[in-house]
Write a structure and sequence with these properties.
Helix content is about 45%, strand content about 25%. α2 packs across α3. It binds S-adenosyl-L-homocysteine (SAH).
């Protein structure tokens, strides 16, 4: 197995592949004003095994296209959707977020939790805008500085890993400069990282290592995840995920 296959193997059985929570998806839905609308068309981009997709399908009268690069995650989502009686509302699509096949102005909403960083926040919101109907909704969560200034080691780490990390006000300015108007912003609470994402991930480490005979590659992956967890635990007052809910503005 190569590194990507190992990473998939570690993350496939998680309920989510990034920080978040059902209550927070619901809060974003409330901010979007979409509750109560009928026959919505929604895309959930970089959906992983579908933590947010399943909430969207429960809460909205919508047909949802769940997009991810990795078919393994989509297969998990399909199973969960079946089990929860939501399969009729969800269609999966294995493709890149950089080559989405949607028609212009065809979607009422684009959702994306913890995934837009793969193409970059600004590139992503610019590329996806044309798929939204006039006044369509964009709801994305994105790595965000929670304070005006922060400790140097933390700043160094994230600037190197993800140069676009920024404060909420900077991200909102990027949204406004690219044809969106903010409806609401909130920062994910810490438990969305610890209880919902990191703890279940840590609990999978031992079985993952033994599945792969404690290979050097498997150990390196666990070490790198453990390092990220330690960094988050140390600096969680300064960095987190911001959830941005915005509306497409007229051209
Ligand atoms: N939204 C999910 C998953 C977040 S992890 C959750 O919150 O649990 C990021 C996801 O983006 C992964 O599932 C990964 O497979 C997917 N991804 C990475 N690069 C991608 C790309 N270029 N196009 C589509 N999906 C991508």
């Amino acid at each position: 197995m190569d590194d990507l296959e190992l990473l998939i193997d570690l993350h496939r059985d998680g309920e989510r592949q990034g920080p978040g929570g059902a209550d927070e998806t619901r809060l974003a839905i409330a901010l979007s004003g979409l509750a109560g609308a009928k026959g919505l068309k929604v895309a959930d981009i970089g959906c992983g095994s579908g933590a947010s997709t399943l909430v969207l399908a429960q809460e909205l009268d919508a047909s949802i296209t769940a997009v991810d690069l990795l078919p393994d995650f989509l297969a998990r989502l399909e199973k969960s959707a079946e089990r929860m009686g939501l399969a009729g509302r969800i269609e999966t699509l294995a493709t890149s977020m950089e080559a989405l096949p949607f028609e212009d102005q065809s979607l009422d909403a684009i959702w994306s939790e913890g995934a837009i960083y793969n193409m970059g926040f600004e590139t992503g919101i610019r590329a996806w805008r044309r798929f939204l109907k006039p006044e369509g909704i964009l709801a994305v969560s994105e790595l965000t500085w929670l304070t005006h200034a922060r400790p140097a080691p933390l700043e160094r780490h994230w600037t190197q890993e993800y140069a676009e990390v920024g404060t909420a006000s900077a991200k909102i300015a990027v949204l406004e400069a690219n044809g969106y108007s903010l409806l609401g912003y909130f920062a994910l609470p810490k438990r969305c990282w610890t209880d919902s994402y990191y703890r279940p991930l840590q609990e999978r480490f031992a079985a993952f290592l033994s599945r792969h005979g404690h290979s050097a590659a498997a150990q390196a992956i666990v070490e790198s995840e453990a390092k990220e967890i330690a960094l988050y635990e140390r600096y969680s007052d300064f960095v987190g995920y911001g959830y941005y809910v915005a509306r497409r503005t007229p051209d």
